[in-house]
Amino acid sequence: MHEVQHSLFHVDRGLFFTIKELFTRPGFAIREFLEGKRAGRFKPLATLVVVATAYSLLYRLIPPDLGRIAKGSAEFALLETLNSWMGKYYALMELALLPLLAFSSWIAMRKYGHNYVEHSVIQTYLAAQRITVGIVFIPLGLLGFFAAMLGSSLLSMAYLAGFLLTLVQLYATRPPLRVLARSAAAFALFFALLMTFAVVGAVVLFRLKVIQP
Q: Contact 55/91 with Cβ under 8 angstroms?
């Protein structure tokens, strides 16, 4: 609790240094943190809490412009619901997916020496990196629906690039192509597990009659 309070109310240069590191030398910075070189760096959870809070606040202040979508239409209602959900729960979703992301990268990279807890640290910093990129792209929503969709596509590409660059730097002593292959395997495992949990969850909810066909 003290860490959360400190991160929210005492944002010092350590936060900005950490964010800069996550975009200029992410893998090297995370490796140094794991090796104990932590002076001047924000802890992973504290970094994630701050940027996630900033994302949620900014998303509510700058909602996407849906002016070109007919009000009252099913498409408009769906997008409104999605926007409301993103503003309220995106940060929570990132937190909820961390254990699964950490497990997937741990399995794919298990020969490279880091344990599950260390992969949790890696994925927490990567989540903070993703959310920070998301903050940069939020203003695109003001340019209209199609600009927002373009931003979403670019955002996905940025997420993937950040993930791959971070792991290649983190395991700089390993052959880059092998690291990329294992990174792709981690992504594939994550999505396979996510879809499995989603299907199982839907079946359970259907059996319990929480959702109807």
A: yes
Residue 69: per-residue pLDDT: 52
In terms of C-beta density within 10 A (0-12 exposed, 13-18 middle, 19 or more buried), how is residue 156 classed?
exposed
Each residue of 127-171: pLDDT tens digit?
999 889 888 887 776 676 666 677 777 878 888 888 899 999 999
User: Which residue ranges make up each domain of the chain?
Assistant: 2-207
Token pair in block for residue 162: 């950040």
Among 40, 3, 8, 35, smallest CA distance to 21 is for: 40
What pTM did the predictor assign?
A: 0.81
Cα separations (Å) of 95 from 62, 125, 145? 23, 11, 27
DSSP code string of 151-190: HHHHHHHHHHHHHHHHHHHHTTTS-HHHHHHHHHHHHHHH
- One-letter amino acid at 23 equals F
